[in-house]
User: Which sequence fits this backbone?
């Protein structure tokens, strides 16, 4: 065996079960050796972090095997859908770094689905039911008891055809009739007990207007749409496992018994992405927006993709996180610490290091000449030699962090206290000589003396001190607003806690949310100071505020009012949260 000239050991990453399936299908020549996937969001809200996992799978699988992935909007419920959501979904997918081959909509197939439904009625496989939804549900039975046939189950074909057309004419009211597939009211899969496949909805559709008044249900539209587009692998989450037999049955009915085993869409399910201290689902997120818990879908506390983007997460960090948690057939609650570690790792490589003081107190260097200003070099990123450096100004009066000074300090406190030396980052060593306090005891100013010749490269620069603190020149600093974010929920598993509170108190979701909500999830610091290097910052620029955390410039930031969002702290805070 030839030796690796660089003595490197390369390991092939193990495949997950979906990758193994796809590679097996390709080896066997199924679907003509094609891989075609689709990402099928409903445009009824903004995408959240759970969708990022599906996006990475759908687009990544096609990309890896030279196939294509289509974007298909599941727009079969006009009461909840909007072009705003369509545009936002496309923006999020593009931001994550993926490209769709074609853009489709379930509404593209409304006529084909309608014609298919008419064929089912003619074949005795569907009928119009005039019962209300509550009655139909009561006839479903239980997993151990068969359902009860609808009194309309065997109505004449022509009667069902006439009524089905009336369902779309506008003369019938919503809820007055539905079209049901005639399958088996005793089937052990409850979804097979004559499922509803069409219902009346009179709300105008965002694409088709008022052309349709009767719309297909998801289970009826999804598999057929996959087939119309030539999808080979229909990848979805575990809650659709019971739906798979129905998915296959409708495709079989569509093709009237033709042999599709070697050329048909195959549905495969994987586990959802669940995060601790995070509540997902568009329904819950919509409630947060509408009830004013947050400022909008892109509030940096929201687990939406646009929320993470505004907070300063990068596409690379989200994809890294998804790759690390992997794909299995079992649901699990993932630790937020893993996601934070991914963004720290990515930002450590790319973020420019700057000085910012978010809880300022003035430091006066009493023996430094008044009016003197020095320009010092600050390395932009020690992880990236190509990043270069920038200049920072040093003067007699500086802003430092309030907790970097303690008047009566314990033995292991190594920052500023009277009689102790510390290094000012990129500058001199200083000796603390005292402080000035207000009448209420608050420290107003800290005093020190600098020690000449202690800058880097000077004769006494190797003088040993136990601490280095950051600073900004008071005369040259820019005032800024800094926003510090924490988890939205006080409980580790808010989904289960929400269900528990609702059951115990018989209350609505919003009432339960108020009991779980973390009122300290946003802390605004309006009087912070940053170095003047940040004067020209643009939205979504990434920085490491030295010794504090990673931050990005908010979209509402202006040259006259800089705003920075904390993306993540420098250290893992989630393990401490869990220990409380």
Assistant:
């Amino acid at each position: 065996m030839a030796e690796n000239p660089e003595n490197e050991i390369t390991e092939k990453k193990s495949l997950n079960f979906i990758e193994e399936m796809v590679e097996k299908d390709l080896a066997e020549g199924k679907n003509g050796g094609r891989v075609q996937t689709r990402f099928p969001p409903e445009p009824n809200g903004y995408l959240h972090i759970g969708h990022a996992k599906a996006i990475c799978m759908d687009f990544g699988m096609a990309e890896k095997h030279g196939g294509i992935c289509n974007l298909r909007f599941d727009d079969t419920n006009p009461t909840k859908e909007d072009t705003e959501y369509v545009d936002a979904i496309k923006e999020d997918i593009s931001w994550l770094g993926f490209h769709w081959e074609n853009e489709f909509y379930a509404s593209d197939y409304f006529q084909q689905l309608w014609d298919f439904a008419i064929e089912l009625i003619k074949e005795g496989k569907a009928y119009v039911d005039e019962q209300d939804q509550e009655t139909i549900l009561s006839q479903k039975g239980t997993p151990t008891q068969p359902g009860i046939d609808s009194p309309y189950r065997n109505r004449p074909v022509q009667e069902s055809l006439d009524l089905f057309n009336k369902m779309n004419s506008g003369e019938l009211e919503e809820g007055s009739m539905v079209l049901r597939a005639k399958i088996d009211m005793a089937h052990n899969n409850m979804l097979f007990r004559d499922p509803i496949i069409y219902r009346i909805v009179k709300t105008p559709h965002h694409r088709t207007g008022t052309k349709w008044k009767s719309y297909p249900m998801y289970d009826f539209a999804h598999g057929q749409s996959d087939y119309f587009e030539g999808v080979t692998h229909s990848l979805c989450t575990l809650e659709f496992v019971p739906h798979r037999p129905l998915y296959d049955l409708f495709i079989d009915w569509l093709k009237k018994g033709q042999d599709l085993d070697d050329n048909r869409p195959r549905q495969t399910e994987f586990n959802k992405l669940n995060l601790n201290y995070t509540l997902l689902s568009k329904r819950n997120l919509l409630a947060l927006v509408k009830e004013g818990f947050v400022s909008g879908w892109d509030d940096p506390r929201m687990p939406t993709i646009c929320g993470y983007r505004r907070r300063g997460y990068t596409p690379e960090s989200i994809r890294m996180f998804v790759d690390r948690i992997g794909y299995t057939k079992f649901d699990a609650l993932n630790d937020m610490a893993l996601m934070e570690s991914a963004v720290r790792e990515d930002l450590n490589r790319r973020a420019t290091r700057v000085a910012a003081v978010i809880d300022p107190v003035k430091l006066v260097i009493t023996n430094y000449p008044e009016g003197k200003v020095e320009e010092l070099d600050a390395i932009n990123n020690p992880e990236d030699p190509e990043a270069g450096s920038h200049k920072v100004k040093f003067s007699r009066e500086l802003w430092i962090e309030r907790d970097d000074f303690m008047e009566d300090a314990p033995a292991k406190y190594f920052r500023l206290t009277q009689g102790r030396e510390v290094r000012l980052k990129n500058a001199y060593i200083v000796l603390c000589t005292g402080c000035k306090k207000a009448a209420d005891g608050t420290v107003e100013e800290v005093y020190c003396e600098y020690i000449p010749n202690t800058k880097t490269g000077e004769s006494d620069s190797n003088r040993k001190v136990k601490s280095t603190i950051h600073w900004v020149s008071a005369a040259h600093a820019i005032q800024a607003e800094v926003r510090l974010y924490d988890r939205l929920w006080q409980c580790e598993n808010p989904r289960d806690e929400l269900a528990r509170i609702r059951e115990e108190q018989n209350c609505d979701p919003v009432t339960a949310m108020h009991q779980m909500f973390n009122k300290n999830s946003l802390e605004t610091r309006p009087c912070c100071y940053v170095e003047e290097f940040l004067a020209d910052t643009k939205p979504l620029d990434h920085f490491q505020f030295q010794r504090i955390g990673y931050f990005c410039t908010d979209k509402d930031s202006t040259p006259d009012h800089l705003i920075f969002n904390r993306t993540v702290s420098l250290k893992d805070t989630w393990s401490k949260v869990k220990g409380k």
User: Anything to note?
Assistant: Residues 378 and 426 are 7 Å apart (CA to CA).
